[in-house]
Amino acid sequence: xxxxxxxxxxxxxxxxxxxxxxxxxxxxxxxxxxxxxxxxxxxxxxxxxxxxxxxxxxxxxxxxxxxxxxxxxxxxxxxxxxxxxxxxxxxxxxxxxxxxxxxxxxxxxxxxxxxxxxxxxxxxxxxxxxxxxxxxxxxxxxxxxxxxxx
Length: 150
What we know:
Shape: globular
Oligomer: single chain
Radius of gyration: 15 Å
Number of strands: 3
Structural class: alpha+beta
Strand content: 15-25%
Strand order of the largest sheet: 1-2-3
């Protein structure tokens, strides 16, 4: 029974509320860059669109087909993404990865909402889905900057 209790704790009301209310949940009509990422383990997919100006994300859209944890992570990312630079996105991605995989602290503001996913550390099979949105956003931002959209 302890494993069932842990799984119930993992899917907290806060995670489920985030999963049900993903900001920027529609694709952009004319993005500077788009990236689709898929977790081979669970099949979750996220497609991210960005528009970039002055080296910052000025518009963002995402199509999320993931488990509740992946959706919650996409909600946290979507809430904080506008106005971010590539360096800020990389720090958030790397901090989230370290939080999940090596017990590091939760990312700092404006991505502090990722702390809700700390209980997922014990569920390695969920890490890829949780990382999809922020990883896709980093890649899309890199593409946009390389194509001189910034």
